[in-house]
Amino acid sequence: MRLKRSLGGPELQLFDPFLLLDEFRSDDAGDYIAGFPDHPHRGFETVTYMLAGRMGHKDNQGNSGLLKPGGAQWMTAGRGIVHSEMPEQEDGLMWGFQLWVNLPAAEKMRAPRYQDIEPEDIPEIDLADGVRVRLVAGDLAGQTGAVRDIAVNPIYWDVHLEAGRTLDEALPTAHNAFIYVYDGTVTLAETRVQTGEMALLSDGDRLAASAAGESGARFLVIAGQPIREQVARYGPFVMNTREEIMQAFQDYQAGRF
Ligand code: FE
Q1: For residues 116-145, average pLDDT
Q2: How far is the CA of 185 from the centre of ligand 1 (A)?
Q3: How many A from CA of 204 to the centre of ligand 1?
């Protein structure tokens, strides 16, 4: 599957508690048809948010689901699952994001859990004329996001700004926060953030982001409480120590996931 990786590659391996951010966007089935066949995860959470296309999901514990445009899945892998994520279409646009969120040591071996969110269950708030936010996770303007009870108390907003409009909102001071622009250009203070770019926010308590140019902008605002623990990572396993990674391999190979 063809991906654009902004976080989790050599340039930026970790932005605590976030481990990875991928955008997939293609209307050429050859780029996505292979999907992600069976693979394991342990020790963290994967978050999929779809803008277009349909993605099926199945795991080795009998869970299955279908992600639709505008829908989300927050999967807490915990002690381990083996799953597949496969496109349920043979043509047309497939567009969305996958974010990996770390778990604190105390929750790495918890039972797996899914929060599958239908598109219509994500609150949409019009903060002002031309300023719309879809609340995947995190509170805003007295409303609560669709995803609940996550260790790092995350914010995951999908923001749509019309030309010339600004989102100006408080963010929790202790959180690490970034934006990812997926359409248009956004101005943050003096910085222009273009389509396909991620911008890490400095310490502070507010985000003010404006649509630059004449056609508006769309972007994700993602924030979470840093975990501040040692990270040992190998592919689909994210633990605290090298020994725990070795144990993950042994457990996976012995079919204990
Ligand atoms: Fe996966």
Answers
A1: 98
A2: 30
A3: 33
CATH 2.60.120.10 positions along the chain are 1-121+233-257, 123-226
- Find the 82 Cα to ligand 1 centroid distance in Å: 8
pTM: 0.97
Q: CATH for 123-226?
A: 2.60.120.10
Digit-coded pLDDT (tens) for 22-46: 999 999 999 999 999 999 999 999 9
Do 83 and 41 contact (CB within 8 A), yes or no?
A: yes
CB 211 within 8 A of CB 162: yes
Q: Tell me which H or E stretch contains 58.
A: strand 55-59
Contact 126, 80 (CB under 8 A): no
The token pair at 116 is: 């599958």
% the chain with pLDDT above 90? 97
CATH architecture of the region 1-121+233-257:
Sandwich (2.60)
Distance 100 CA to ligand 1 centre (A): 10
Confidence label for 81 from pLDDT (cuts 50, 70 and 90): very high
The pLDDT > 70 percentage for the chain reads: 100
CA of 214 to the centre of ligand 1 (A): 37
